[in-house]
Amino acid sequence: MIRLLLLEDDPNLSKTLKKYLERNGYFVDLAKDGEEALDLSYTSTYDLYLFDINVPLINGIDLLSDLRDAEDMTPAIIISALTDVASVTSGFMAGADDYLKKPFDPDELLVRIQAKTSGLRKTIKFKNFEIDPQNDTIYKDGEKLQLGQVQKSILLALIKNYPNPVTKEELLLLHENPSDVALRVNITKLKKSLGISIENVRGVGYKII
User: Fold this and answer.
1) Measured between alpha carbons, how far is 93 from 41 in angstroms, rounded to an integer?
2) Cβ neighbours, 10 Å, residue 8
3) Which of 11, 19, 26, 94 sits between 20 and 30 A of 149, alpha carbons compared?
4) Which residues 6+ apart lie within 8 Å of 135 measured at CB?
5) Domain span including residue 93
6) Boundary of a domain, candidates 91, 120, 149
7) 67: exposed, middle or buried (C-beta count within 10 Å: 0-12, 13-18, 19+)?
8) Edge-first strand listing for the sheet containing 76-80
9) 52 or 25, higher pLDDT
10) pLDDT tens per residue across span 109-135
11) Mean per-residue pLDDT, 86-115
């Protein structure tokens, strides 16, 4: 799920936007001041920043400038009631990718967010499996799978290559100590633990069906 950091000191607006964005499929962390937003940016990874300017402790423009100086290039949208040319210019000079003036229609904000994150939403789906391409996390029936690295890599390769087979040589490269036996064992474990069908394509490799 795409993760957003919203810096907004108006509690009513921040809660309203959080609910609206989460209904539209985003995960949203809230920060009421610049220092809290800075701390969150260090402890979590975000796909997009939404920063108001006039907030306590560190204003949104200074915060964004500091993040850019620290080589944090996460896309950012400034949301502010400051509509003068100097403020807008300052926002872009600090590293903003977009600038939205208050008051605004939430649908407009959503469109702008979608424009900045559209490339991140191309999830890969196969039957009841879904792959988050940002971190290759695999979900089955909405639940995150807990697999060992080798089995996870094999499953990823099979799903991403569907309906074509993955060569045995490619699958062997996913093993720390590659062997035909190790590959067969991991394929068998995947089939049993996940209830999936994996077919041996003679002379080629394996494919999920």
Assistant:
1) 20
2) 23
3) 26
4) none
5) 3-120
6) 120
7) buried
8) 27-31, 3-7, 48-51, 76-80, 98-101
9) 52
10) 888 898 888 765 567 788 999 887 666
11) 89
